[in-house]
Amino acid sequence: MLIYAIFCATCYIASNKEVALKCLHNSQESIDSLINEAKKYPTTHKEFQVLFGLSQNPVTGDYIFVQSYTANWISGNEKIDDFIQERQLKINNYNDIVLEWIPYNQFNKIKETGKNNFITVYSAIWKDGPLYKYNWDKNYTRDSNKEVALKCLHNSQESIDSLINEAKKYPTTHNAFQVLFGISQNPDTGDYILVLKWTSGNEKIDDFIQERQLKINNYNDIVLEWIPYNQFNKIKETGKNNLITVYSAIWKDGPLYKKYHLDENYTRDSNKEVALKCLHNSRESIDSLINEAKKYPTTYKEFQVLFGISKNPDTGDYIFVQSYTINLANWISGNEKIDYFIQERQLKINNYNDIVLEWIPYNQFNEIKETGKNDLITVYLAIWKDGPLYKKSHWDENYTRDSNKEVALKCLHNSQESIDSLINKAKKYPTTHTTHNAFQVLYGISQNPDTGDYIFVQMLEWISYNQFNEIKETGKNDLITVYSAIWKDGLLYKKYHWNENYTRDSNKEVALKCLHNSQESIDSLINKAKKYPTTHTTHNAFQVLFGISQNPDTGDYIFVQMLEWISYNQFNEIKETGKNDLITVYSAIWKDGLLYKKYHWNENYTRDSNKEVALKCLHNSQESIDSLINKAKKYPTTHNAFQVLYGISQNPDTGDYILVLKWTSGNEKIDDFIQERQLKINNYNDIVLEWIPYNQFNEIKETGNNGLIGVYLAIWKDGPLHKYYESKNYTRDSNKEVALKCLHNSQESIDFLINEAKKYPTTHAAFQVLIGISQNPDTGDYIFVQMLEWIPYNQFNEIKETGNNGLIAVYSAIWKDGPLYKKYHWDENYTRDSNKEVALKCLHNSQESIDFLINEAKKYPTTHNAVQVLYGISQNPDTGDYILVLKWTSGNEKIDDFIQERQLKINNYNDIVLEWIPYNQFNEIKETGNNGLIGVYLAIWKDGPLHKYYESKNYTRDSNKEVALKCLHNSQESIDFLINEAKKYPTTHAAFQVLIGISQNPDTGDYIFVQMLEWIPYNQFNEIKETGNNGLIAVYSAIWKDGPLYKKYHWDENYTRDSNKEVALKCLHNSQESIDFLINEAKKYPTTHNAVQVLYGISQNPDTGDYILVIKQISGNEKIDYFIQEMQLKINNYDDIVFEWIPYSQFKNIKKVGKGGFSTVYLAKWKDGPLKYDADKKIYYRNPNRKIALKWLYNSQNITDKFLNEVKEYFTEMYQ
User: Do the Cβ atoms of 871 and 887 come closer than 8 Å?
Assistant: First the structure.
């Protein structure tokens, strides 16, 4: 006898309910068709369109659908009715549009707003208005007296399909910017009408606006709209040319916007002042209109914004409704080409620092004074009353004017004769207006009303010659004379980037570069000026041009520059350190030292006195100043570069120019290589490769020599540069022990030396690190300065052999000092992990091939947090064999590679850390099974497996862990087979069976799989009662005393037991004869506690030897169990029923209530009750003592698919 539960529901009657009766004519002739129609309706009350029931007209026999009556959908046309109802039936969200049939008499104040051959557009008031509701509302309400657009489709009654296809184009949710509320019909013409939120009356424009609206995905995106012309007040013409007229106006509703990105709803910026750009005759080319609109940016933060498109109803001209950032008259010059150029530049503004190019009326200028003239141009100084537009900072929303701004007016004679030439000249100017960030800034274009000449309005620092004091000549040739001078006012600068105002660096010492006869070629002068860098932060460029001046006596133009010149008498303790035919290198002490600021917020510079520097003397450099300057330009321009050019000096005896540097090797190729490597540094962990003077090394001791190279240990006094993870500055690791690899005769091939150096890795994480290059001053040999951990053999205690295969021998040992490490990344100093247990991998005869040794070493990862680590290299003094000092090794390369490969793939806290586990780690080893091929043992693993919690950074050990040892007999004979077997195991802790390591029995040589699986001793079970038996399996209910391990919350560190847990024991007869069958059965179960069916573990009956799957309650019938599990797996909503197997002992108060030919029905109470889901707490709970019905099906123990299909029909929703 099989029984399942059906919930009893209490029915409530809503009296006098208004409903809709949908009578389906002749439906009695096809019941299947009737049922299929009924199936289209949703099954919950919360839907918009609900089918309450079926009825039948007793007179006609027609069946009737009894439905909810929320919205009208009866037009009188079957296709339209079907379309509207289909759309209503699809409503499943509060935000979905309720499409309706709207009687024409619902519309008031109907006014025509546009017309063409195919459609007429009207504005109207819809009296009832559309249906809507908020997400928390149960009922719909109407938005009465809603202003809508009526799109009347001429002769649409002739093609209903075309009408419906048109309607389908519109979105179906209220949060769309365009919405189709419903369909109506003009009773006089018969034309159908689409009732819309808005329409322009032109399909291309509507499509363009809708396309732009659909692309909105940010609160700052512009909501482009169609704006009826009657929305504008106070319309005033502000400018005009042949193609456009510009007006200012007030937009009554104003544009849609979101104040913050978290806002859900848009609001209107009402009574917004806007500019109306009326495009004459634009109705003649809609494509051209749309292309113009596409040029506008799509976000509110831009300078020029297009809010929408409108249309003048009198002229038919389309109108661009734009932001009113500036009076649009300020780009209406009256010349179409100039106006287009100015607008194009304004539309490209996307940064607060971009120049707002404007048309500037000539009457804006006061105090106009001529300052220069030639045949082509006249230059004036003037005061611009309004001044240029700018934003103080990138977070400012609005532009302000820098009023009464002094500007230069560059009047281009007869420029009105070639507008193209004028515009091409204007295009040459930069587009950003940060002072000193561009050599010349073009604010705008103007025109002299008397001459008609166009004028470029510019900004440029011009420095009057009378600003200079203490002028002293410092150098001269035929083309230029150089002076030093004091600039009284000094340059303009901002102390900090957030300062609003500029200040002057008064009494500034500068260099004056006087260009002889430069007045004869202004173009040549400007081209020379353009070659200078464009930022004026001191030391951020090699040479800085502050401005231009002019000698009033000679007329020569003057470049006002800054450059550090260092007198030769500033240097003490000059010592030659290198020489070739072209240069000589010296070390020296610079008495004053360089100028610097300790912190960027310091106001004043200080000198780093008695600075040790390198002097690179360029022989005969006085013969080619250009060559000197080109060499100087190669050096970086900031103090935080590793190589720095501090300045230029000159030897007074030879006349040779000198580059004053941080360092130099004296060889240009080596300098270039080191500098190239330093420039590539972009991470705190990158090596700072340096040139290291040989006198930096102490305690030099030879450790090896083979004819080609000599190896030495030494102490580097200053030590290498390094920095910590979050540190800004480098520090030195002083008195660092390093290895010096001296390459004999390497000075004969610098290319070979550099290629050798390139082979080294570039980060500190690597096995071998090259931290610098040096040179022995006696031999000239170049030296690689390296860092590598060498471990003396006498550091190891308790050395025990653990494996040997002819090529290698493996030992365990205790390393007395232990490896260097930092506990935390912010620690400054390393500490030793003393008495560290390590593995020694001794490579026999490795002294015969150092390359082989190094290649072996390179295979290992380079960070402490890797699971396998190479700590260093040692050497057996008796055999000469080199030794790799490791965290662990199996002694077999294939197994080591497999374990390391698996460890490298770990990327989740839940992934298994597969390890090599020494056999001496196991205690209390007990055999539990043996079949000739494998032996199974239980054991205690002393250290236990590595694991970490969800948000933990570090792994911890689960010490004294009970594990299963699966000993594979003779597995040492086929390592490939062993590895393939190991690959079959899953890689996460969530799996049923977990392989946590591999070991080896030292006596037999057999390899061992160390596994983790919940084995439950049979004596853990009480109250064992048989509940089913079919020959292959027997099912029992039982109480598991300890109960399963679980974590209450995912953040819990420790597991707890759910003691005295009622479970089902699924006993698989004779399963001991096929372990594979047992495991395959176990694999079918899900692996998480939140699954509805769970495999807790495996046990074994000691009397029969049968294995037992310990699971949640089951029926014992495979078809039913499979069916129940299938139904549970379909659960995807908190409201879905949790279908279960319910033991008969769960029912009480059983009473017969009815009987039929196939079944008997009882009422009963279910003690535990059904599972329900608490959406807030995110847990299932039981509803106990639930009243249920039991339907007893006669002879149903012979289970059939028909029976199960009948059960499926009840699997709908759980009603209270």
Answer: yes
C-alpha angle with apex 23: 22 to 26, nearest 5 degrees?
Answer: 145
Looking at this protein, which amino acid is placed at residue 1068?
Answer: L
- Alpha carbon distance 1071, 1207 (integer Å): 33
The percentage of residues in the chain with a pLDDT greater than 70, rounded to a whole number, is: 76
Say if residues 491 and 504 touch (Cβ distance below 8 Å): yes
The answer for residues whose C-beta is within 8 angstroms of residue 846's C-beta and 6 or more apart is: 852, 853, 856, 881, 882
Instruction: Say if CB 534 and CB 438 are below 8 A apart.
Output: yes
Find which of 114-128, 294-308, 591-605, 858-872 is predicted with most confidence, using mean pLDDT: 114-128
Q: Where are the beta strands (DSSP E) in 516-570?
A: 544-550, 557-562
Q: Which residues pair with 1162 in a beta bridge?
A: 1152, 1190
pTM here is 0.37
The identity of residue 1181, as a single letter, is: Y
- CA–CA separation, 571 and 587 (whole Å): 10
Written as one letter, the residue type at 328 is L
pLDDT at residue 112 tops 50: yes
Strand boundaries in 102-167, DSSP class E: 107-115, 119-126, 131-132, 141-142, 146-153
Q: How far apart are CA 1002 and CA 207, in angstroms?
A: 80
CA 29/CA 61 separation, integer angstroms: 10
Q: Hey, CA dihedral for 321, 325, 330, 331, is it positive or negative?
A: negative
Q: Are 206 and 212 in contact (CB under 8 A)?
A: no
127-157, pLDDT tens digit by residue?
988 887 776 666 788 889 988 889 898 998 8
CA atoms within 13 A on the CB side of 528: 17
Can you give the C-alpha Rg of the chain in angstroms?
A: 44
Which of 211, 141, 202 has the alpha carbon at shortest distance from 176?
211
What is the distance, to the nearest Å, from the Cα of residue 244 to the centroid of all Cα atoms in its chain?
Answer: 45
DSSP-derived secondary structure letter, 972: G
What pLDDT score does 193 carry? 92
User: Is residue 1027 helix, strand or coil?
Assistant: strand
Neighbours of 909 (CB within 10 A): 15
What are the tens digits of pLDDT across the range 347-398? 777 777 788 888 888 888 998 888 667 778 887 878 888 888 877 666 776 7
